Structures are given as structure tokens and as C-alpha cells.
Input
Amino acid sequence: MSAYPQSLAPVLDPLTPVQREAAMALGRVLVLAGAGTGKTKTLTAGVACRIQMYGMRPSQILCVTFTNKAAQEMRERITTVLGEGQAPFWLGTFHGLGARQLRAEPEVAQLHPGFDIRDADDATAMIRRLMKAMDPDTVPEPDTGKKCDVRQVKTMGERIGHLKENLVTPEAAPAWVRGLIERRRAARQMVDVEGWEFAVRLYQIYQATLREQNAADFSDLLMWPTLALMNDRSYRDRWSQRFTSVMADEFQDVNRAQMLWLTYMSEYSRELFAVGDDSQSIYSWRGAKIGFIRNFVREFDGARLFKLEKNFRSTHHILQAANAIIARDPGRIPKTLFTQKGDGQKIEVLSYDYASDEADAIAAEMGRRAAEGVAWHDMAMIYRINRLSRSLEEALLKARIPYEIIGDVGFYHRAVVKDALAFLMLAACPDSRQSDEAFRRVANVPRRGLGAKALGQIEQEAQDRGLSLCAAVTTATLPSKVRDSLLAFRETVSRIGQIPDMRLCDRLDTLLKETGYYTMWREAASEEGETALQNLSELVGLAEGFTQLQDILEHAALATASPNERGRDRVQLMTMHRAKGLEFPHVFLPAWEETVFPGMGERNYEEERRLAYVSLTRAMQQATISSVGYRQGVSARPSGFIEEIPAEHRVTGWLRQQGQSKRREAGGRFRHTAAALDAMGF
Output
């Protein structure tokens, strides 16, 4: 006979013994849920147990996670299990629940009822405006770029956010920052003293402005309630007594403010159910403190630890590779993932000379697997940073493989790439109406004084005379400065477009130089400017492979069609951070080189190790790792993480070339002979 009500049998019976024990446990509980071990199912069961087994009311359970998507998924699962109206009333994200708490008592933040919430873009715009309004002599000179440029505004916004995440008020900021500077100096670390001191002054002005406008930014939503919980006993009692249980998902990602908020909100009930995995803590750059999950059992007297180690996603070889890499993280809470899904296939490890060779080989292999019956959406390419996607996209485009980039803009969707192609189009046929959209896009980039009124006059002139917009510039009635600037622009693009026997890549490079487009981005002296110049360099290099303008335009058009087709069967491309929480039968992991991953400089090496663990455990059936000897002008060697995978769990080269592939043909329209595959170009 089960030790729980029969009504909970549909929820608890399918669980493993350790999942079931964890879900039924009360008090301070840490569920250490390894990748693919059913953490959401366990958390859902934990909610169900508290309501149906222990008689807690849904209105008295606080359940928090990091994203609206995760909160909605949790709500749907609980509703499916318990029925309508049984999900916790206080179920949402940290910011969402903090906003509810702050709206109930806005005076703790010196706000009034009905306050506005400023999103990240609004907050950045306010910081930029406030900086520009300050005495220029008080704004520090940045190491790179100009005062009040995009990079400096972003840096100051991040520092204000850092202060708020650490619960530092504007009044306390001067002393806190002095302590920060002293600590870094004592540790012989670089510290931007002038920049931090300026950030303090800016923070004080920024926060005063928010209060004047009866507004809060995202960081305020949690900071002020947490400070009130810390410093006001009656407030803390009032809120902690509301809840009989506090439950937190993705606990490895909490920052200081979030940890204190959870601790105080659960003070009265002494019920804190935390689910997470320290081996998947990959957001230290966002303020996450891995020590909170690793010290949980020591922090709370009587706390219990449950380890979920049975993986339901991946095969044995994949898990053993991941286990071996993460085992070298010296601070981890020990656990070893295992599976009953069988050995599966060994990790394929490949090396190439150049990134283009690597990308072409991956695309070809994807084509072969598709021909064997693997759906495109069951294949993913996961890489360390976004800029690695370009060569991969090119290879997929050449192979006519449909793809979608998750969480980033595809190469040909980027504004600078579209601008550059518009320059080419305009230069090719300035007197044809076919170039009108290109003219609209770049005639005022960089700025030439072309506003809406002047453009309207040009459009009317073009319509009246049957001219292209670029040609209408010569006869339209315009302010003299605007007319002179546009005539010079027209002369430049027309002249470059008529140079005979000029390679397409050289024509593009010349256009970008002589129109001032390169200069515009160099003078931006910001991260955005650097990225733009990198993308333009990539495009000029790419243009070397084309002789005709229409070919590269068609190539780009095929790539930019994908956003309208999302949701269809297509290969998934994403960074390692974006891949967390996802799974795919076939995972390709390119660019595992020391210079890229773990990378050089100030990266957190152990966090890079955890990224390797996360990446490998996205794979369900097959994982393929590749590296090159030369990438983006720099020689490279394979990542040390590859050698940490035991030899018995990896193979050098493609398994199919060694006769070891266990993949089965699915039949139907995708079945092909080897000869047919060769004929298809795969």
C-alpha cells in the first residue's frame, strides 16, 4: 500500500524512488537535478504533494522561476495534474512576483500606488539622457570610444544594476563602492576608480528621477521588497506568514538579492524547496552566485539533499563524456549521471584545417542524416558565441538546408549587411526604379540631411518625371545643403558602379569606404560599431565567392526568408547559453578550440567547463565535436575538454566512415542508396 493518497498516484507513481521521496519531503529541501533527470516533473509533484497530501492552500504557496515561459509551463503542468484553480496563486518570475509585492506596498520604495515600470530600453534611454545633461567635465573619459557613447552608457547601466543586485541603495553606494575599490586594489586587480565613482553619482540622480516620475526599473522590483524584508520586522512577518511553502526552480542561477528574498519569504514556514544543478550554473556574468546552491545544506540547519542522477534523455556514451568533463570541477557537489537507454553511439571528434571545411562537413553530414530519415528539427548546432554562426549559415545555405537561429539575428538579417547589399544594388542601377528601395535604405546613411520632407519631395519628383529616386535627386527642389550632399552621394555610387572589370568584393569594399559607411561605424567607437565592422569584413570576404550581383542578392534573399517560416522543419542554431533546457537527438558542437572554448583572457574556466557539460547533455542520441587548426586569422589547437573525454567513449572521425554507425534508415521518401546520396552532393 502506498504511503500517499490514491489521488496522488497519477503524479507520484511514475516517479523514480528518489524523485518521489524528494517531492514528498518537507522543510528545507535541495533537489540536485542533473541534466535530463526530470526536475520539472519533480517540482510539479512537490506542489501537488503540498496541496493534496499536506493540505496547503494554493493561495499560500509561492513558486518562482526565471522566465515567463518556464512559469507558464509549470502552471500548465500543475493544472493538468490538479485541475483548474489549483496552481499556486503566487507562481511567476522573480521580477513578476516582486512587482506584485511592491504594488501591494509601494511606499517601501518611496513610490505611490499606480507606479510605472521602466523596461530595460527605457532605463537605458534615461541613463543616456541623464549623462548627456551632466557637465561634460564630470563624465569620465572612457578607455575606448567617446563620452556618453553606446558602450559607456551600457557600462554605467550595468554598474547601477550591479549595485541594485547587491541591495546597495543610492545613499549607501559611496561607501560600498569605496570598499569595492579597496578590495580590488588589495587583490592587485584592475579597477576603474573614476568610472565607479561617476556611476555612484549617476545612480543617485537616476534613482531620484525615477521617484519623481513615480517609476521603478526591473531591478527595483526585487531590491526594495528585499530590503524591507531585511530591515523591517513587521513587514517581514507580514509577508513570510502569507506562505506555507516557498519553491524555487533553477536555484543555481540566483543572485544575492534573490537568495535573500527567498530566505526571508520562507522564514516563518521554514519551508524552502529548491531545485537546481550546480553543474549547470553558467550565468555568473548576470550575477548568479554558485555558492548559494553549493552551501545550501550548510546554510540551513536540518536541510535535506536529494540527488537526481537517472538521466532520461541521453545514452551512456554521451553521459560518460559529460560526467568525465564535469568531474574535474573541484567545487561541485558530487553526482554521476546514468541512464537505462543503452550505450548508444560514441562521441564523434573531428578536426579540420579551416572553419569553412568544418562547416561544409557538418552540413554534408546533416544532409546524409536527413536522407536516412532524421528530421531537420532533430538536429542542432550549438556554439560558444554568436559570431561563429556565419560560416555555419553559409554552409547550410549552400547545401540548401533549412535552418533557424535561436535567440540571434541571422547574418543576412543584420542591418549592416542589408545596408551593404543596398549600396551594391544602388551602384548597379542608380537610374532604374529597381534601386528605389536601396536608395531609401542608404541615402541617409551616414546622415546627409535627408529627412521625411525632403524624401517626399524626391518621391514626388520621381513620380512626376518617371525617374528613379536616385535620378530624381538631380532635378528635385531641395535645400541646397541636402541637394549638394545627395548629388555627391549619387556621383560616388554611380562612378563606382561603372568601374569596368572590378570584382564584386572590391566594388563593395570601395562603396563602403567612399560613402563613409566604414567611417561611420569606426567613429561609433562602441561594441555595436566593432560588431558592425566585423560583419562587414565577413560580407566582403563572402563576396569573393560571387561574380554577379544577382547571385549574392539571391543568396541573401534565400537566407532572409527563414523568419517567415519559423515553426517548420529546420535545423536549429544557437549558443551554448541559449541551448540550456533544450534537447535534440543529434547535436553538433563546432569550434571546440582553446582560443574559443574555453577561450582566452578573463573567462571563468570552471564556468566554461560547466558550459561543456550543458552542451553535451543536450544530445539525446549523437554528439559530434569538431575543431579547426586556423580560425578567423588565428592558429588554434583543440580544446582541452576534448582530451578529458575517456577514449572508450569517443571516436576520431565520422562513425559512418568506420562502419560503427547504428543509425537506421527510416524508409519512405528519405531512403537513398549511397550512390544516390553522392549524386545529391552529400
The longest strand covers residues 619-631. The chain is about 50% helix and 10% strand. The CA atoms of residues 28 and 300 lie 7 Å apart.
